[in-house]
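for the record, two folds in this file. i put them one after another cuz i was lazy. first one right below, seq on top, structure tokens after. the second one comes after a little note so u can tell where it starts
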Amino acid sequence: MVLDSLILSKDPEVLRVIRPTLEKLSIEVEICHEARAGADILISDKFDAVIVDCDDLNGGLAVLQGLKTTPSNRNTVAFAVLNGKRTTTQQAFDMGANFVLQKPISALNASRCFHAALNFMVKERRRYFRHPVKMLVKVVVEGKTLNATSTNISEGGMALMLREALPKGAAPCLKFSLPGKNIHMEVEAEVAWADVKGLAGLRFQNVPKTSQEQLEHWLDEQMEQEFPGAKERLTAAEPEKPH
């Protein structure tokens, strides 16, 4: 599994240190030298990590502050690069940064920072991973059982195609079996969105711990098939156990 990152900086020293550090972690790097162009990219593209040169890139702070409001990247791991003269570490955290790097950045400090953040990046990638899958889903709502077909599923919900639109405010129970596994799921859900054609997105609610673990394990297997090496990255990103 390859992770994706965006660096917003025009500082050659920042790029010289950070880019190879990310690439050693199998993180693809996209570089943007202007804050406005970077903000436009963040609206349309999803990244696992965003590194913003806050003090020495005109408009950098605004990009950091606005990151959590972009639909695609509101949960992206954000790194603030500071020069020690304008923005304080606490201010950067208050603006939405998850990690802070101070200039001049050494290769050692960059490596430590990104290794520490890797777990969060991989976990977030798994969280928003949606597996396209077509399976029968029983939708029990208001005492009535509807047949639906899934279009995709994630650890937090699924999209369904029904013959009729779900009623507004519906809180259905979903019943389905994971393909290739003898695992029957029965979970509560809420309608996140729905259209008049019967397509709907549902968010899982109050999922039993065992069912959640089974779903996550199944999704890990599907992710491994789509992105070879994903399982190893998930394992490598787990916190080390004390000796």
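(here's the note) second protein begins now
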Amino acid sequence: MDIDRARTFLEIVQTGSFRDAADRLHVTQTTVSARIRTLEDELGRTLFVRNRNGAQLTTAGKEFQPYAQSMVQLWERARHQLAIPAGRTSIVALGGELSLWNPLLLDWLVWMRKAMPKVAVRARVGLPDQLLEQLRTGVLDIAVLYAPKLLPGFTVKLLQEERLVLVRSTPKTGDAEPTDYVHVDWGPLFAMQHNEDAGFSEPGLMVGLGPLGLSYVLRAGGMGYFRKSAVAPHISAGELELVESAPEFTYPVYAVYPDAAAERGDVMESLKGLTEVME
């Protein structure tokens, strides 16, 4: 079967419409319709019901979905394996959210180099939706995320219960007052808990990336919620201090990988290493 037809099928499932799938695949809607029509002819079953709200899977479409997922992942896996560098036994593709790369995933890469020297590593950094898309299409073997969406055919493993703590700059850090609050968008759960418990007025600065907010506070002064492991060295160095009376918030970290990865020793060993560096 043409792999493009399987990709097109999965894009429609993901986006919920032929038009949006065409936009993401950078083809015309006519091309998308033709691919699905050919696929349905090959299978002898209708896969989608189209209506005003987009496209919905039929019972046959739901049955076909895991097979399409496996086809695309197998294709990507074959491409990876054929590109294995000389002297290496396999390739493991890792991905993580931007705010997790330093130090967690950097430590992971160092562990991989020492413990699995025969395995080539491909590392990617991205936003959660980007990483999930790369997992879904087989580009990634493992992704480390804070709040992953559940995907059929994938395992979501809790790695660590990270904590978000309120810190403020010490007087020597910057010109701003330590009470100038920098709001970091840590996701909907934090937003809900934060609005209920923190009691801060409207912040003067809002950022969508933890490391950016932390770098700002370190340079310009102020206060904000950041990952406990990220601020620990700055507290030790006297650049930041904990606000002792402030509430803390849970921010769990998860690894997401295909169910089929359980049969791959290199992926399972890589996950073991990730667990070790988080201890």
